[in-house]
Amino acid sequence: MATTNPATAPAKKAILPRKRIALVAHDNKKKDLMEWARFNKGSLTAHDLCATGTTGTLLERVLGVEVQKFKSGPLGGDQQIGALIAEGLVDFIIFFWDPLEPQPHDPDVKALLRLAVVWNVPVACNRATADFLISSPLMSSEYERALPDFESHINRYEADANMTTD
């Protein structure tokens, strides 16, 4: 029987049945997200919700629950949610973004999506994907999310004798 060395086993993060869901929508997609949220009110209100500014205000009206609101996306809200991802404080993201409209904060949008991929956080970028994910049996149960091992990246210069500080 093979055993796993705890020192080399992949790191995992327990995602509890009550998840922290971040919701974001570009202006042209806010109506779609509100319709989706209204349809999934029963599922969404079982979780802790956070959102960028305007989206959060609209969600509070539609769902009738408190939503932790960050700044508007172009004013830093996407980056605030990205920081939560990096800290392990977001379990799931629903981001209805508009692929046909240029965004002044496009680098922030890409950074948010990149961090979700880096930290293995589930992301739904359209209604169909959001429907599949919110209806998954994993939404109401505990889940062990594998975390990437960045130890070699963090320590990549430790053994390099040619790297010096001046």
UniProtKB/TrEMBL annotation:
Segments forming domain MGS-like: 13-166
Gene3D superfamilies linked to this entry: Methylglyoxal synthase-like domain
Highest taxon of the lineage: Bacteria
Keyword set, alphabetical order: Lyase
Annotated positions binding substrate: 26, 30, 52-55, 72-73, 105
EC category: lyase
InterPro entries reported in the protein's UniProt record: Methylgl_synth, Methylglyoxal_synth_AS, MGS-like_dom, MGS-like_dom_sf
A GO molecular-function annotation: methylglyoxal synthase activity
Gene Ontology annotations of biological process type: methylglyoxal biosynthetic process
Cellular-component GO terms for this entry: cytosol
SUPFAM superfamilies in the cross-refs: Methylglyoxal synthase-like
SMART domains per the UniProt record, alphabetical: MGS
Residues annotated as the enzyme's active site: 78 (proton donor/acceptor)
Catalytic activity: dihydroxyacetone phosphate = methylglyoxal + phosphate
One Pfam family hit: MGS
The protein's Enzyme Commission number: 4.2.3.3
Function as written in the Swiss-Prot or TrEMBL entry: Catalyzes the formation of methylglyoxal from dihydroxyacetone phosphate.
Protein family according to the UniProt entry: Belongs to the methylglyoxal synthase family.
The protein's name: Methylglyoxal synthase
Designated gene of the protein: mgsA
